[in-house]
Design goal:
Number of helices: 8
Radius of gyration: 21 Å
Structural class: mainly alpha
CATH topology of the largest domain: 434 Repressor (Amino-terminal Domain)
Distance between the termini: 51 Å
CATH class of the largest domain: Mainly Alpha
Strand content: 5-15%
CATH superfamily of the largest domain: lambda repressor-like DNA-binding domains
Low-confidence stretches: none
Shape: elongated
Number of domains: 2
Helix content: 40-55%
């Protein structure tokens, strides 16, 4: 399967599902869900239908365990009350990288994931470390 065969999609907070196009724009995807039928189903019927879907089988516990969780940068920024530009500046990241991570165009590598985890848990420690490093750089230069 090539990138040409892959549709990148995301559900927006308002529930709209959009496709990310190669040029960076998005377009709404048509919803083919039979919502009245789904609303009339019991949880057991929904589960049975999901399990019977050969095109999209549920993940096993082993598969779920192997999955990498990526920190939710937008949520982290929201808790810190920072714009993308402010977040990028404060934590010395390229603003384009922050945008790409949030839009799902790129995925943080392991080092960036670890940085985001630390920022999420203790942003002041990261800010202090970066300020100390900048001060050392100025003193050395």
């Amino acid at each position: 399967m090539s990138d040409d065969d892959t549709i990148r999609a995301r559900r927006l907070p308002d529930g709209t599902v959009v496709q990310f196009l190669a040029d960076g724009t998005i377009r709404p995807l048509e919803d083919h869900t039979d919502w009245p039928r789904l609303a009339a189903m019991t949880e057991a019927e929904i589960e049975a239908n999901a399990l019977a879907d050969a095109d999209n089988p549920p993940m096993t516990e082993a598969e779920l365990t192997r999955m990498r969780r990526v920190p939710n940068l937008k949520a982290i920024r929201g808790r810190l009350h920072l714009t993308q530009e402010q977040f990028a500046d404060r934590f010395r990241l390229p603003v384009g990288t922050v945008r790409d991570w949030e839009l799902g165009r790129r995925r943080p590598d392991r080092a960036a994931e670890n940085l985001l985890l630390v920022i999420d848990k203790n942003p002041e420690a990261v800010i202090q470390a970066l300020e100390a490093a900048a001060q050392r750089d100025r003193s050395a230069g």
